[in-house]
Specification:
This is YciK family oxidoreductase. InterPro entries: NAD(P)-bd_dom_sf (IPR036291), Sc_DH/Rdtase_CS (IPR020904), SDR_fam (IPR002347), YciK (IPR049572). GO terms for molecular function: oxidoreductase activity. With 251 residues, this protein is of the alpha/beta class. It has one domain: NAD(P)-binding Rossmann-like Domain (Rossmann fold, 3-Layer(aba) Sandwich), CATH 3.40.50. It is built from seven helices and seven strands. Strands 3-2-1-4-5-6-7 form a seven-stranded parallel β-sheet, with helices on both faces. Helix 1 runs parallel beside helix 2 and helix 3 runs parallel beside helix 4. The structure holds NADPH dihydro-nicotinamide-adenine-dinucleotide phosphate (NDP).
Amino acid sequence: CKIDYQAPADLLANRIILVTGAGDGIGRAAALAYARHGATVILLGRTIAKLEKVYDEIEAAGGPQPAIFPLNFEGATLKDYQDMAQTLNTEFGRLDGILHNAGLLGRITPFEQYNPELWAQVMQVNINGPIWMTQALLPLTEASEDASIIFTSSSVGRKGRAYWGAYSVSKFATEGFMEVLADELDNQPNVRVNTLNPGATLTQMRRTAYPGEDPETLRTPEDIMPTYLWLMGPDSTGISGEKWDAQPPRS
Ligand code: NDP
C-alpha cells in the first residue's frame, strides 16, 4: 500500500495509458489522475456518454488530449481485440500502461441460487474479456520502454467469501492469470504485471454490494489514487508478479 505516495506532477509524461471502465467509479478517477500527471489516456468503456464526460474533464483541466475507445466486454470478440490493437498501433505505436479496471459485481446470493448465465457474464467481463484483450495488446506493451499492466483484484479474490459467487472466483482467476503472465514476462524487464486491490471504495458497485453502509466511512476513488499512480509510473519499475493494496485494511 502506497497511500502516502506523492506523485511528481510529470510522473506519466509522454506515456500512453489504457484504462478500462474509465467512465465511472475508480476507473474514472484513475483516468483523470493519470492525465493530470501527464499521460495520454485511452478511455475504454461501454457507455460512450460517460467516457465523453471524462474526456471533456481532461480537456478542461488542460491534460493531454485523450482518446475514447467504446467496447463492451460482454459482446467483444477476438477480432474486436485484434482491430483494437491495430488501431492503437497506428495511432500510438505502443502502450506504456494498461489499467484493467472494468468490472461487474453480478449478484450477492447463495451459490445454490446462482444463475449460470449471470455467472458466465461476470466471468466474461471480469476475466475472459480482459485476458484476450491482453493477448492482443501485449506486442504494444513490449514496444514500450517501461510498461505497467495492472489488474484490479478484490479482497474476495484473495480469500473466498460466502455469497460472492462468480465475482470472487473471477478475482481469484485474475490473481492467477497475473502470476502466469508475470512469470512468462520475467525475461522481458520492460513489461511488469501486478494486481491491485482498491479496498472498500465509494462507488456505485460498492453501494450495490453494501446498500446499508454509511458512505462517510469509505475512502473515495480520489483517496486511493496514490497507489494507482505509483504502480503505473516509473517509481515501481522492476516490480512484477506482486499483489498490491491501494489502502490499508479497514479496522
Ligand atoms: P463501478 O461499477 O463504479 O465501475 C465499473 C466500471 O466498469 C464502469 O465504468 C462500467 O461501465 C465498467 N464496465 C462494467 N461492465 C462493463 C462491460 N461489460 N464492458 C466494459 N466496461 C464495463 O465499479 P468500481 O469503480 O467500484 O470498480 C472498479 C474495479 O474495482 C472493478 O474491477 C471492481 O471489481 C474493483 N473493486 C472495487 C471495490 C470497491 O469497493 N468499489 C472493491 C474491490 C474491487 P458503465 O459505467 O458503463 O457501467
